[in-house]
Protein: Dipeptide/oligopeptide/nickel ABC transporter permease/ATP-binding protein
Amino acid sequence: MTAQLHAPDPELAIPTAPEMGAQAALARRVLRNPLALVSLAFLALIILGAVFAPLIAPFRPTTAVISDVLAAPGGSHLLGADGAGRDVFSRLLFGAQFSLAGALVALVTAMVIGVTGGLLAGYFGKWIDTLWTWVISLLMALPAIIVLLAARAVVGPSLWASMVIFGIILSPAFFRLVYASVTAVRNELYVDAARVSGLSDARIISRHILTVVRAPIVIQSAIVGGVGLAIQSGLEFLGLGDINVPTWGQMLSDGFQNLYTNPLLIVWPATAIGLTLIALTLLANALRDELERASGPAKRSRANAGKKSTTAPSATAGDETIRHDGGAAGEAVLTIENLSVAYPAHGGGTKTVVRGVSLTVARGEVHGLVGESGSGKTQTAWSVLRLLPEGGRIAGGSIIFQGKDLAGLREREMEKLRGRRIAYIPQEPMSNLDPSFTIGSQLVEPMTICLGISKKEATERALKLLAKVGIPNPQRTFDSYPHQVSGGMAQRVLIAGAVSCEPDLLIADEPTTALDVTVQAEVLDLLRDLQSELNMAVILVTHNFGVVADLCDRVSVMRLGRIVETGPTRAIFKDPQHPYTRELLGAILSEATPRGPLETVAPAAAPSHKEAIR
Ligand SMILES: Nc1ncnc2c1ncn2[C@@H]1O[C@H](COP(=O)(O)OP(=O)(O)OP(=O)(O)O)[C@@H](O)[C@H]1O
Structure:
């Protein structure tokens, strides 16, 4: 299997990079939007004028010709001359340089602070969130104009200093936007899935979170850039700017002095400022629209999938008895000893949801964790991945995986294991795939990181894996977005992703619950085949004894956070010792006649018991 997965297949075509294609398509659509095109053309013209001002401008911006004071447009002064005899056209060109650069300084400052803060606070939460939120609240409480006036008094009439300060004051605009977007996606299952597949926090933020916030950042940039330009012009119009720097704001101020003698002097800079602001806003709107259209239905927010609750009977058992019958055959890959998981309880104290759980999983063995809803199966599995939800902590015990105690391992060390040595198959396939990326890119990226192989090799490997997990047209699925495939296909994709790095331990959390019955059986078959082929240790979380009977070598029955019985599957089915196990099995394997068939359906057409519980 190993050789088969690694060997490059020359027959497999290397797909075009879908993300680059999508970006090119987006650029083409933006260029086809007339408003965007006109705005872009205008902004490009302004920027070119600013950059080439020294070559285009007939005069230096500060050159004053006394004989040309308040000269009318025409002759050597295309747009006339101002009250000091300086050429208006030249000043407009040089003014664009400084005005745009000033706005850019404010924008970059606001963006760096706001976006960084929003990402960190939104993604990591806890004290980082508290600290950033406090700083941003403080900034929002400051009156911008007063701060700028005070700063001018301290640092003098510096365009750059005032724009940096204004950028800091504007940073909450980015912070709130990014923070809201990040907190909305932080708990999406595909972010957890990315973590499980071995991606670092930095990688998840840059790939899965930043893509979500990029559209709002684009539109906000245009607004903040425009506000920066407007405020800068306003300050200079009020005479608070640096008179030695030719900006559009300074020109407004100069023009105002001669409003009655030559009103055109105020019209030129006002037109330049107004049109630039309009172009920025229109361009940002068009970009946002096209980005949203490009994402289409795939971008829609998916609510976190609620976990399916089972209808297993409530226990009426008396004292819990634990039956351990010998150690697992083969090399132990995972040994959990006396594990406890706790959460802070409402009103103080702690709530222990997993208590003294011990189990061993050997190489090549499938260990079922079975029990009613809320019995602690998922908490046990997530403890092994060290991905307990916020507030949850391993309160005691050890989780020995290949000689390392995962319970005390540093996060950096854990990152090296997740996705590489310990893989995870979730319950909800759709919510665990990022709707913004093609399936191919979501398979390829973890492989390039975990296996250190090139993108080309990872692509070939992904296509082979897709074929291996029974996807009929691997190339088409590779190029598809998650919303373009069925739930069963998505689960096959996740299984392909989980085994892509040939893990030693695979944790499958109710991997068939969200699928319809016919697909469930196929996915179970696939899991069984892959497990024996890769000789993996598997923990299978399920509430379904049918799945246990089908796949598991050993089973641990959980109830109220404890394992009440553990042993070989065959033995447990044949001779359950604990009353709770008997009750669970009794409920499922009941001989009672099911509710009568519909009149039109012949009794023979009713599904066999095994099919029914699958
Ligand atoms: N974030 C949380 N905060 C506090 N308690 C939690 C949290 N998540 C789970 N629990 C508690 O932990 C217990 C075990 O939950 P767990 O999800 O492991 O159950 P389960 O056996 O996997 O059930 P299911 O089959 O429904 O997924 C439950 O009582 C639940 O209330």
Observations:
- Residues 1-19, 296-329, 598-614 have pLDDT under 50 and may be disordered.
- Residues 323-421+504-589+604-614 form a domain with the Rossmann fold fold (CATH 3.40.50.300).
- The longest helix spans residues 88-124.
- Residues 307, 309-310, 343, 353, 371, 373-379, 389, 391-392, 543 surround adenosine-5'-triphosphate (CB under 6 Å).
